[in-house]
Amino acid sequence: MDYKNLSKTVSMALRHSPEKLGLTLSAEGWVTVEELIAGLARLDAKWDKVALQDLEQMDVNSGKQRFEIADGRIRALYGHSTQDTQITYEPVQPPALLYHGTSPEVAQLILQEGIKPMSRQYVHLSDTVQLAKIVGSRKHKAPVVLQLDATTASADGIKFYHGNDNTWLADAISAKYIRVND
Description:
- This protein is of the alpha+beta class.
- The chain is about 35% helix and about 20% strand.
- A three-stranded antiparallel beta sheet has the order 1-3-2. A three-stranded antiparallel beta sheet has the order 4-6-9.
- The relative contact order is 0.15.
- The mean pLDDT is about 90.
């Protein structure tokens, strides 16, 4: 089983384009595992043998805990661009520092204008420099890692949410809390 490609396909369906698999997500982003498996099989014959165990293994293999599977249902934990899906997160106190990896060009804009969710519902932040570099390397071969003073931002009213073990979510963040990581 090509778990990496399966993860990309499931991410596309549960985060951005459920209609491509003929899916309708609940307001909290859930769909039954049965519906997802049927949608995958309709999309491409290579997915016609996917089972619940494959979806569970897919998430374990990614090491990123992108999905939640419970009670016969599955959803993406974060990263949604569909406006019909809004997962409710409880605000939590973030670690003192969080990080955001991006291209040098975008880093300059962020240092002037702050970080915005853009097409997603939340800003995505990493809890380590290393993870931010990995994320930033998707956008540029020499990514810039920005450091966010999450303690001050939180004290000033910016809400932070736990996306998973390594990913933090937030609403838009003003440039005054951000600097280039040394």
